Give the backbone structure.
Amino acid sequence: MTAVDSLMLDAKQAIMDEHYRRFQTLRHEERWEEALQQIPITLNCATDLLNESLRVLTEALETHNHTSDNSSPPAK
């Protein structure tokens, strides 16, 4: 995982946390209509974060597998 990947995941996590906090605030204030409008926004942020995490993980696995393939002893 690169520094850019880490920053991107941190930023997406912070955005999702902020939207979730806003949803919780609206819910606690019983502003139901606004809270319901916040749900798809929060879910979209969560989806974006999960997709980015999956991309980073897939890339890390591909890099690891490529490195493992190159370091294995030659076949006899």
About this structure: Residues 32-71 form the longest helix (40 residues). The chain has one domain: 3-61.
